Amino acid sequence: MSAKRDRPWLMRTYAGHSTAEASNELYRRNLAKGQTGLSVAFDLPTQTGYDPDHILARGEVGRVGVPVAHLGDMRKLFQDIPLDRMNTSMTINATAMWLLALYRTAAEEQGADPALLQGTTQNDIVKEYLSRGTYVFPPEPSLRLTTDMIAYTVHHVPKWNPINICSYHLQEAGATPVQEIAYAMSTAIAVLDAVRDSGQVEQDRLGDVVARISFFVNAGVRFVEEMCKMRAFTRIWDKITRERYGIADPKQRRFRYGVQVNSLGLTEAQPENNVQRIVLEMLAVTLSRDARARAVQLPAWNEALGLPRPWDQQWSLRIQQVLAEESDLLEYDDIFTGSHVIEARTEELVRDSLAEMARIEEMGGTMAAVASGYLKSELVASHARRRARIESGEEKIVGVNIYESTEPSPLTADLDTAIMTVDPDVEARVIASVQEWRAGRDDAAVRRALDELKRTAEGDGNLMIPSLACARAGVTTGEWAGALRDVFGEYRAPTGVSGAPVAVPAEETGGGELAEVRRRAAATAADLGVGRLRLLVGKPGLDGHSNGAEQIAVRARDAGFEVVYQGIRLTPEQIVSAAVAEDVHCVGLSILSGSHAELVPDVLRRLRDAGAGDIPVVVGGIIPSADAAALRAAGVAAVFTPKDFGITGIIGRIVNEIRIAHKLDPLEVPS
Length: 671
Prior knowledge:
The chain is α/β, with parallel strands linked by helices. The chain starts with 9 loop residues before the first strand and ends in a 10-residue tail after the last helix. Strand 9, helix 11 (274-284) and strand 10 (295-297) form a beta-alpha-beta unit. The protein has a 5-stranded parallel β-sheet with strand order 1-10-9-8-7. A 5-stranded parallel β-sheet has the order 2-3-4-5-6, covered by helices on one side. The mean pLDDT is 93. It is 48% helix and 9% strand. It is globular and about 75 Å long.
């Protein structure tokens, strides 16, 4: 046994929705239930630097998190929550500096000493280019924002974790354990090199920087492998910080990480099975004392269906509490010490991860590997291979491709009440609120603050100082980001689709499913008198979860389609213009943020107005059944949700919809 019972990890639930007031009420309820830290989910306009009344924010306000457009929203978000006694994690990246400026200012208004503030800003922009998609600026200016913020917090908010190197979304985008370790560690090297080379932190204080860097990782259902991954992370971080940066204090070299367990593996089919998946994934990061997470947040069983309700979040919190309070887990030293199985797999992961890190270093480091498209293409290819294994049955998922028969579930008897829905009128209220905020502030002070922000951005001063001045002057999120866009420009990251290799060989003469879809696509193209069918894959709005869209694009390409895919963050107008200009045969829209009810009908209207209303439109995403019925009634040809895991089958459906739209006879399936 341990000399004393180990301290439990911080227990969080990832939460925020609708408005700052509604989210504040949810936070206070969760804290009353025993949650020991806050994890703030921001909506997509906040994450990507737009105000609620910007055209790209339409349909996205308050959907996947809370809108925070200015200091007034931050005050409301944490009303009656003493920030000097709270540990707050903020999942925010491109606009992390801005949200920390608002948070610190709100804390000061409460009378809190900034030196006492504890928490984390994710602030890992690299993974945004690779997986999550909420980047704003090009890589180099983005790295400067991160560097400036780290330097500022070390001197002025010393208990704050200014960056949370995030491999969570890399696994969601298809990363293997080796890729997850290597890409996250290479990102950490890029950040530490930039801070060291900036001259803003003295060499003898670099250990303070290392000590405040934390990591946010993913734990999948292969819990033995995931536990070994965490042990490998720990060893590599100790090696890097000791050998590359000369950090002598082992406490400063400690690998500090929090976890959200895997949401990618949660299923829409038989969603009750997600509970045991979540438990297994949690065990991967809690069983091993030497590599135990210091903060854990669990998804809810119904996240593949839609937005979890407060009760669903409570259930996830109780899973953690039962393990920590009822079991004897925290009473023992590491129970895997001496296991030759664990040691062998850990060493294998260390070796392979260091080799991949060396390959990235040879390319010029992480930023160069991002710009070249190498990292993104590797993730897209890895994810395509995983999807192919699921479709073939090589990788088994209970309720999806094995043991599919099921009794009716009382949990989903009424699907429309099994998730929480956001009131569509929320957006109008939030827009009115931000307009009222702008009308009531000192415009001259706002202009002065924004001008100083731009001047600093054009020079080499620390951007945190003018950002704090902007927060105090009443600048909005969109104005802060807009000023920096004027100086730094915007950026479109490589999609990784064109460089991804074929994941499912199409047997030209065999009877494989993809070979048959290729035959039908070629026959349909011949019937229409074109060389190849053309599919536009579009992501309207601000949803940056592009994994599904990329996999559809890659598989359609492999099935013989010409694919038009311009990446994320497009307006309905841009999508329709591209569809008409490219003379496509089908438009496929991917939306996971919940904005489908607003954006899809707009695409349909614009296609009709452009005289292209006969182009079939298919939609994929996390779409409740009632919404799916409404979309089909509006004219959508087909709706695909997570239960439609067979991508080749989806491409086959698209071929069928093209034939129906052109009034072609059905193709016979060879016997």
